[in-house]
Write a structure and sequence with these properties.
- The chain has 297 residues and is of the alpha+beta class.
- The chain has six helices and 16 strands.
Length: 297
């Protein structure tokens, strides 16, 4: 099968054409897609005819898959599929990398469009590798030395203002197991050797600094991640699948569709333990995520 890969922006994203992802892939095609993901960070596919089982089968070409989430319920009958549903209050309009509060966050995330609003609802995906390259030398030198604590136990799940009973229940579920993990602020990609800013919404404190000091530094670094030049703005169409490298990107679901129905299904690929520039691995402070994703020996 002859596939075509077309860049979408200079720093991130490519569209894949000429490929039916409802069918098994041969090794040559799988290798080409893995190389394209390394190069472009985000791949967009036509997913006409793809169901939950097909999405899982396709994603397995990139590695073993995780269960749906460490604390949030899966799609009924599909324990590896997470519903991202506006009716469930899961509009992730907050920059983040998926599940960085565990020791080995997913290496890749796939999102498949089920219900698309008539307007809005885009997903923004940013290259943290481009962000790192953009840093002034002095700031890059500082970032290279920093480690950050990531946790699910804060107001990401449900903002504190105007919390109702349903929102409180969702927050209780999201934090039903509390996780705290320390990761390098600059992560080395295990396949490409690229360095990227490994922060995002779950990064709440810089090791050795106060909460206030941490917030200032994290906000400064985050501003480089979300520069428009580093961001792909994906406007969803029905029956699409977007696959992105969770090790070196962040993403944000734009809540601009007036509460209309919007549903995606998420399947994630099990990842490795992040490593900093000196070869030191991340470490856990609190929380066991072995039911979600095993740690490779």
């Amino acid at each position: 099968m002859s596939i075509q890969i077309h860049k979408v922006t200079a720093n991130i994203g490519a569209r894949v054409e000429g490929l039916d992802i409802t069918r098994p892939l041969d090794e040559e095609t799988s290798t080409a897609l893995r190389e394209a993901l390394n190069a472009h960070k985000v791949l967009v596919f036509d997913a006409e005819g793809l169901d939950d089982a097909g999405q899982q089968a396709f994603v397995r070409h990139f590695g073993d898959i995780t269960t749906a989430h460490p604390t949030v319920s899966a799609v009924d009958g599909a324990p590896n599929v997470l519903p991202v549903d506006s009716e469930g209050g899961r509009a992730a309009n907050h920059w983040h990398t998926d599940v960085t509060f565990v020791l080995n966050p997913p290496q890749a995330t796939s999102l498949r469009s089920i219900t698309v609003p008539p307007y809005g609802g885009e997903t923004l995906i940013a290259s943290s590798a481009a962000a790192y390259r953009n840093l002034p030398e002095s700031l890059r030198g500082l970032a290279d030395t920093l480690w950050a604590e990531h946790t699910n136990d804060y107001d990401y799940a449900v903002p504190e203002e105007d919390v109702d009973e349903e929102q409180s229940a969702r927050r209780a579920q999201f934090t039903s197991i509390k996780y705290r993990t320390v990761h390098p602020v600059v992560r080395v990609h295990p396949l490409t050797g690229e360095r990227g800013l490994f922060i995002g919404g779950f990064a709440q404190r810089i090791v050795g600094l106060s909460a206030g000091e941490s917030r200032k530094i994290l906000d400064l670094l985050q501003a480089y991640v979300t520069r428009p030049e580093n961001v792909l703005r994906h406007r969803w169409s029905p029956n699409q699948l977007v696959l992105f490298d969770n090790r070196i990107t962040q993403h944000y679901a734009v809540d601009n569709y007036d509460g209309l129905p919007r549903r995606l299904h998420r399947v994630t690929v099990a990842g490795d333990i992040p490593v900093g520039i000196e070869g030191k691995e991340s470490y856990v402070i609190e929380g066991d995520a072995s039911h979600y994703t095993p740690v490779a020996a």
